[in-house]
Amino acid sequence: MSEKAKILFVDDEEAIRSLILTVLEGDGHTAHGVGTAAEAVQAVTDTPYDLVVIDKNLPDGSGIDLLRDLKRKHPETEFMILTGYPSLESAIEALRAGAFDYLIKPVLDLDLVTQKVSRALERRRLLQQAYRGTDQAGSDAGVQAQALVRQAGALRAAVDGGKDAEAKELAKAVDEAARELARQLGRG
């Protein structure tokens, strides 16, 4: 089971929202659902969330645009996009906008949802440890944390530049470096 977190689920389809909220709460998370981009902005303004899952098509705007806006204002939050109209182009657009992952409706494999949520929360935890390590740890861990931040920047540049193969390799390196740093800090 993953770490317990505050999760916001943004989807205008009540049945999907209810199902996913039930799954997330059953996994021990505090989950809240809203149906529009405006409600999502208000919810994130009122409460800090660990993870926000956003439907790509909302009645009052684009989920990708909402993701970009929220990611800029809340960089410590992880995001995922959900869509009923999947395509390679929309997946790449979601990742470039800052999404950790991409879910496809109808959501039939609820175990896959909980796995992806767990991975997103683990990534968030590791990045937070790396940032704390820069402030609190000795010089070795601080240097490693700074290198990790640089690798993450290179990863973002590769994703933004459409260099998929390079991005995959950088993502593996960032993940390995974060895990190693967490082990050195005695938290992994």
Q: What are the main properties of this structure?
A:
61% helix, two-stranded antiparallel ribbon, alpha/beta, globular, 188 residues, five-stranded parallel sheet, 15% strand, 2 domains, Rossmann fold, 7 strands
Describe the structure.
This protein has 188 residues and is an alpha/beta fold. It has 2 domains: 6-121, 3-Layer(aba) Sandwich (Rossmann fold), CATH 3.40.50; 137-184. The protein is 61% helix and 15% strand. The protein has 7 helices and 7 strands; from the N terminus they run E-H-E-H-E-E-E-H-E-H-E-H-H-H. It has helices at residues 14-26, 37-46, 63-73, 88-97, 110-136, 139-160, 164-184; strands at residues 6-10, 30-34, 51-55, 57-58, 61-62, 78-83, 101-104. The strands form 2 sheets. Strands 2-1-3-6-7 form a 5-stranded parallel beta sheet, with helices on both faces. Strands 4-5 form a two-stranded antiparallel ribbon. A hairpin with a 2-residue loop joins strand 4 and strand 5. Helix 6 runs antiparallel to helix 7 (164-184). The radius of gyration is 17 Å and the shape is globular. The mean pLDDT is 83.
